[in-house]
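Worked example 3 (structure in, sequence out).
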């Protein structure tokens, strides 16, 4: 999984092109990847502390309560590879419980944040081999060769981040994981579950307005990175439950007509027009098992909280008949 060195265009152009592609769609779209600059990663950590945002807290409870069982099922001498590692908070629960872990490979797109977190983990787990990889895991990336020496490879993907992907893209991410773990490995994944729409709406429209700031920060990030001129003050946050898609959609709504310049192009945004910045799919247990099966993965264990708000699931390769 490596890029050919002479066919890669200038990175900025690649980013500009993919941003333009989204802005040419109807409705206009921005990738949720734009949330996560350093400021955005910090805002996301604040979201996790919000009373309305049950996801992180519930997942953490599940990890604490069932971590021993998870560690037993993972077994000794595993390589732990985390997709979108962020603060690695939930990972610490696993690191405390796993027996003689071979190595930890956190993968994240936010470089400074990744190395900062890896540094603090290295201080707290001095004997653990930690190899951070700065990458967008939806694109080809290289893993350190030393993971081959581990007894098995475990991909950890907490936080229900898979929910950000539409069905086909989610299948591709799961297939990437399936390839990484090979025949003997497993995927440990956090998946948010369908529930009362009221509870969902509140989780993405918090009273303190942190989610709104997080959403708007995507525009600040893109302005800084691509030199665009979105008028950040002329956008409002909106998050709605879309029943027939079983997802929350985060949007930014323009409060005036504006022209945004991107590369050589001018993108016109009408007053009242929506930019979609994120989809957060919510699954039933059956629905997720079906999605996993489409990537040749079988759900071998599900851990949930008593109210079944959230789930952590162990996926293993479908046995070859
Ligand atoms: C990191 C994708 C799991 O979908 O809940 C939080 C991001 N967006 N509030 C989510 C998010 C708005 C979050 N994920």
């Amino acid at each position: 999984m490596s890029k050919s060195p002479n066919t890669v265009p200038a990175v900025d152009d690649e980013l500009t092109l993919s941003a333009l592609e989204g802005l040419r769609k109807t409705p206009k779209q921005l990738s949720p990847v734009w949330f996560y600059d350093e400021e955005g990663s910090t805002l996301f950590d604040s979201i996790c502390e919000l009373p309305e945002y049950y996801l992180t807290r519930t997942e953490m409870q599940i990890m604490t309560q069932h971590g021993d069982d998870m560690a037993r099922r993972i077994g000794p001498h595993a390589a732990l590879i985390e997709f979108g590692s962020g603060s690695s908070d939930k990972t610490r629960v696993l690191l405390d419980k796993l027996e003689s872990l071979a190595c930890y490979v956190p993968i994240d797109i936010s470089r400074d944040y990744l190395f900062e977190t890896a540094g603090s983990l290295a201080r707290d787990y001095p004997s653990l081999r930690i190899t951070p990889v700065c990458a967008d895991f939806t694109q080809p990336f290289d893993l350190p060769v030393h993971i081959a020496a581990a007894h098995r490879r475990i991909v950890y993907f907490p936080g229900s981040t898979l929910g950000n992907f539409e069905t086909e893209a989610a299948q591709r991410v799961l297939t990437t994981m399936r390839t990484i773990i090979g025949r003997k490995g497993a995927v440990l994944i956090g998946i948010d579950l369908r529930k009362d729409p009221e509870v969902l709406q509140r989780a993405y429209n918090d009273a303190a307005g942190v989610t709104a700031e997080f959403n708007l920060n995507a525009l600040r990030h893109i302005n800084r990175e691509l030199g665009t001129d979105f008028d950040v003050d002329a956008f409002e946050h909106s998050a709605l439950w879309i029943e027939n898609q079983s997802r929350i959609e985060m949007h930014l709504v323009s409060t005036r007509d504006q022209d945004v310049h991107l590369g050589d192009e001018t993108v016109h945004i009408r007053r009242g027009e929506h930019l979609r910045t994120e989809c957060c799919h919510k699954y039933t247990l059956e629905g997720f098992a079906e999605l996993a099966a489409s990537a040749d993965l079988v759900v071998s264990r599900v851990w949930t909280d008593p109210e079944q708000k959230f789930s952590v699931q162990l996926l293993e390769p479908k046995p070859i008949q």
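Notes: Residues 54-74 form the longest helix (21 residues). Residues 168 and 291 are 9 Å apart (CA to CA).
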